[in-house]
Amino acid sequence: MKVKVKEITLGCMPIRVEGDKSDCFDLVLAEEVTLKKGELYVAKLGVAMELPKGMIAKVYSRSSTPSKWNVQIAISCLLYTSPSPRDRQKSRMPSFA
Q1: Cα separation, 66 vs 71, whole angstroms
Q2: How far apart are CA 41 and CA 51, in angstroms?
Q3: Which of 2, 68, 71, 6 is nearest to 36 (CA)?
Q4: Which of 12, 41, 45, 61 could make a disulfide contact with 65, Cβ separation 3.0–4.6 Å?
């Protein structure tokens, strides 16, 4: 099964963690965002994903993200499923400071 990923914003293509030894990828924001404490924002990830039927992708913060950037994924875990028109659109991540 292959996940199709389209880079919408230059520099946002997911990077495989630990090379070919892992199924995990690092995602980056496609925009610079400044949040005040308690503020919620839906950030652009700069990619569009299409998953094979029946596959689910889970997006978690790295354990260092809250302490390094003072931000967290607002719903703890972001789930993508397919097929869905959303998967062919720009991916976004709800986050708060």
Answers
A1: 5
A2: 25
A3: 71
A4: 61
